Amino acid sequence: MHAIQSAPPDGNRFGMDRALEQSAAPGRQTLQDLFEMLPLLEAMLSRVFASMIPGAKRTDGISAHAGPAQTGQPGGSPSQPLAAGGRAQAGPAEPDPHGAAQAAQPLIRTRNAPASPNATTAAKNVHAPVVINVDKPIVVGAGQTFDGHGAVYRATSGLDGGGTPETQLPVIIAGPGATIKNCSYAGGDGIHLLGDAHLDNVHAIHSGKDDLLTIDGSVNKAADSRFAGIDPSTIPTRASHVVISNSSFCNSEDKAIQINGDTNLILNRIRANNIGQLAVTCGGKPIEAHLTLENSTFCNVKYDLVRLDSCRSTLDINNVDAGGQVPEVVLGDVRNVRGWSNVRGSPQTAS
């Protein structure tokens, strides 16, 4: 009991010493006196506990300070919070107007107090993706940014066109210099790019009857610009510069990316699964494409990973994982491939 002498030197300490001395004498302390000592003992233990944990909230019981809420990423960047038990939540929790202010404070748990029901609610009430049905193409004007805010844009029968793969309408038409970010899409003829473009955090879930994304050539540009109400004379005639990052292509019956015009294409941090081919130029056409593929993963590629028929096209591959396999790439000139071993010359070589 002398270890308790480490408590702060105040009146409670000396009162406690006298109480302990009295309790040590047999027969001099009644049961009632022992009960009267309990509040004093609890108060002193609370003081000791508070001195050990700076900033701990003192209550009439013993409190523990759990510190600020943890996040799922280092550095304090915004992220999904950890649910009770340290498991990351599957998605953002439904807002709780009654507990918002409480959640912003450090967690204080008092002895015998029930855990807040908000932790259970947060784990169960997870946002499902918003699905937006698209019955006519979404047009992103030249130089504009389309932020999908995490929604899924799903083609309806309104995009069927004539009912064949070549007449389907795209879910999104992007004008020159447009940016598309934070969305998923499915069906139709995917996304059509009229010129330079940047896609970030864009996910193709499932193709319609053809490809997932088209980089327009002259024929496509004429049709898409007319449909989108964009003056064809404002579309550059030079090669397009397209960057796609942090994105994915899944479940394509044929190719994921169709290249119909001269293009400089950079694919960085791409995931693809269950696709026929990743990127191809229009068969046998003299389309000059310079493709850089890096920091990406692929699996279940049915045919060639890349096919570029022009002998002027180039392919650079760096830090790519194809699920332990090395799918074939096809080029008009096999000498224009860097970073890949399984290369075959195109049977439809174009100038």
TrEMBL record:
<dbReference type="GO" id="GO:0005576">
    <property type="term" value="C:extracellular region"/>
</dbReference>
<dbReference type="Pfam" id="PF03211">
    <property type="entry name" value="Pectate_lyase"/>
</dbReference>
<keyword id="KW-0732">Signal</keyword>
<keyword id="KW-0106">Calcium</keyword>
<keyword id="KW-0456">Lyase</keyword>
<feature type="compositionally biased region" description="Polar residues">
    <location>
        <begin position="70"/>
        <end position="80"/>
    </location>
</feature>
<dbReference type="InterPro" id="IPR004898">
    <property type="entry name" value="Pectate_lyase_PlyH/PlyE-like"/>
</dbReference>
<keyword id="KW-0964">Secreted</keyword>
<dbReference type="InterPro" id="IPR012334">
    <property type="entry name" value="Pectin_lyas_fold"/>
</dbReference>
<feature type="region of interest" description="Disordered">
    <location>
        <begin position="60"/>
        <end position="104"/>
    </location>
</feature>
<protein>
    <recommendedName>
        <fullName>Pectate lyase</fullName>
        <ecNumber>4.2.2.2</ecNumber>
    </recommendedName>
</protein>
<comment type="similarity">
    <text>Belongs to the polysaccharide lyase 3 family.</text>
</comment>
<comment type="function">
    <text>Catalyzes the depolymerization of both polygalacturonate and pectins of methyl esterification degree from 22 to 89%, with an endo mode of action. In contrast to the majority of pectate lyases, displays high activity on highly methylated pectins.</text>
</comment>
<dbReference type="GO" id="GO:0030570">
    <property type="term" value="F:pectate lyase activity"/>
</dbReference>
<dbReference type="InterPro" id="IPR011050">
    <property type="entry name" value="Pectin_lyase_fold/virulence"/>
</dbReference>
